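Sat 14:20. Reprocessing the chain from the morning session after the first attempt stalled halfway. Input below, unchanged.
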Amino acid sequence: MTPRAARRAYPVRLRAVVTYFDPFNHLLFVQDRSDGIFVALSDKEKILMRAGDEVEVTGVTTADFAPDVAKAYVKILGHSQLPAPAAGSFASASWGREDCRWLELKGTVQRVTRGSGDTLLTLAWGQTIYKAHVLASPESLAHLVDAEVKLQGVCGALFNGKRQMLGIQMFVPGAECIRVLQAAAPDPFAIAPAPIAAILQFSLGRSMGHRVRVQGAVTYPNRSGATWIRDATGGVMIQDHDAQGLVAGDVVDVVGFPVIAGFSSVLRGAQVKRVRSGAPPLPVRITARDAMTGDYDGQLVEMEGKLMDRLQQPAEEVLALASGEIAFTAHLAGGAAVQSLEPGARLRLTGICAVEVQQAHDLILPQTFRLMLRSPADIVIVGRPPWLRADRVIPVLSGAALVVAAALAWVGLLRRRVRSQTLALRAQTVQIQAAHQRTREALQKACEAETLDLDSKQILELIARDEAVDLIVERIAEAVALHCDGALCAILLGPPYARVCAVPALPAAWLHMLNRIDFNSVSLSAELRDPGEFSNDPAWAQFIDSHQQTHFQKFCSAPILVEGATAGVIAGLFRYKNRSADGHEARLDFWCNIAALALERRRLHDQLSYRAQHDALTGLPNRLLLYERLEAEIERATRRGGLLGVLYLDLDGFKQINDTYGHDAGDLVLTEVARRMTSQVRRGDTVARIGGDEFVVVLPMLSRREDAEQIAEKIAAALVEPMYSNPQRLSVSACVGIAVWPLDGNRPDPLLRFADGQMYNKKRRRWYDAAGEPAHPAPPSGGNREIVSRPN
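Finished this time. Tokens:
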């Protein structure tokens, strides 16, 4: 049902298995073979259930994020097993596609807290943070902090009032549904301490995503919020901890989870152990320009600035200061600062430097900074503001001007005064009108510049999100037409895109002229001729009349250059009355640079995607792409019917070639084997190399097992043919194992495992045929061999 239809309260009855039931919070999820759903129980329903119960639910339909069952009554029919967890991923779960389904996810436990009738686990998987509600006591789960776990539960969506997806959460029916993949260290303070500057730095020997241990001196203690410490390499902020009893100068031992927060890292879920007391740390004397470099982020610093304004807020007082051309703020938690502070005073401040950042393309750069003051004692007045200030001079001068004006009024004659005032008013009116015109023009230019900057940023955001090139080119064409006073814009891209985008739609004659562009030409402007030659074209005349344009001044074009080659062109047709047509040529170059950036980024994205999913030697799909295609073919076969074949091939004699003739000959053999295997399969089949001399072939849409056996025989026959390499004669053969879905397995791992076993049984039979009865060592066996495993 759609959410609108579900809100009509249709009666519903279903049979399903309970996947999660929280009697304290009255939460119930059930699932059958088709899907899972949330059930809102009736206020009169007091039945007790447990996960695994088979129930009959009667109620009416409703919807919040997705369709639900409301005002439900439940009848327990018996007890059965929980469903097999879906092979979900964070990608599908984060878009709400796994909502209410029994799912299995991984994560590293960062916090264990008591919830409302349950225990709340905070987990991280990479940079993804999600929470899990577990029906168990916090004490029984305390040992999971910093452990890497795999948990099974119901995936729930976090959403707002607009039904927009904000995140996910898991509902786990008990501790038995949590499996520890990597246990946490028994004593977190036994971890080797690391320098503060090395937090979140890449290292092959460091396990990312787990707790780190640092040691340093407290520079900013805070009982209700964050605390800062520093060592010889830098400073760091500690969150989610108990800082009671800490004072500045205390040497502490800290264990916490590092996360990205602006310009520097932050330790969350921290445990703090006081080692000893020490002298309060001395601040580093810097300037505002030094702070803008970001080198002193998180450190205790001392600097000077001129007070510009004060803002009293409920929880803190904010001082606005300036040092030269750099403006910054200072924040003092709690009560007011020094009462005698006045705007214009020069202050010396001591506090924690917190850098705020902005992102420019792929770089994160400091934008401004603020000082976190510890107490009013961190504010020292080094210079008072002068008595004679603008706010005092203006009233004095105003009073003097009034006295002079009154004296002149009584001295002069009434006519002269009226005449002079009339002339002055006329002159003032002319000046005001001129100033108003200049102001209006300046505002218009500022608005145009702001709109141009906003449009360019939106297009750069599309480029950063790797949106389709067609969408980016359309946005650029719209921007050119908008910011060039209604110019007619056309963008022509060469191979591999080979498309023309025009805003607004252009007549066929002009598009035909654009399609004649030679991208290998040195001068593109010579190819784009004046469209005036098409003035006799009826389509062109109709286009001109429809847009109420009778004359055009200029036709300009600019090439889109990617790595020195012309990838496209942007052309614009400007109106005759437009006096700034020459200035638009520079804007065409600006948009050409943005278009070139989009094409270059798309090219790099395609190259990286291809390299990540294909074998570098043979060009065949690698293990990762094999699993994606195999899962897709299983899903397609489930919907459409039919069989799916999997061939597992291992080359016989390949090791001898490598040992005898070297790896160059081995690479030649692998390349030739890949070519021959590809030539023997159908267009829709997949040939993949999963490592060494092992290959896998996926054969969709089979009607019987014999089809897979015939293709396997064709491949084996093609590989028997000899190969030649300067001038050695190389020969290999293949041993092929066959598995058929769903007869030999219903998931990728069982299918590959079965085909691998079949292949090794054939190898064993060949060995016995060649060696006779076992007067020799045991034949090669696949029983202890590590079978293909699913990649993370």
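Residues 450 and 598 are 22 Å apart (CA to CA).
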